[in-house]
Amino acid sequence: MESEAFDAVDLGLLHALQVDGRAPFSRIARVLSVSDRTVARRFARLAATGAVRVTGVTDSGRIGGAEWVVRLRVRPHRADELAHALAARPDTAWVTVLSSGAEIVCVFRTAAAESAPLSALARHSDILGVDAQRMVRHLTRRRWSGRTSALDDDQVAALRPAQPVASAPVALGDLDRRMLPRLAADGRIGYPNLAGALGWSESAVRRRLDELRRARVLGFDVEVDAALLGYSFQCVLWLTVAPHHLATVGAALIESPEIAFAGAITGPHNIIAVAVCRDADAVFDYVVDRVGALPGVTRLDTAAVTRYAKRAAPALIPR
Question: Which domain holds residue 204?
Answer without folding.
Answer: 54-146+161-229
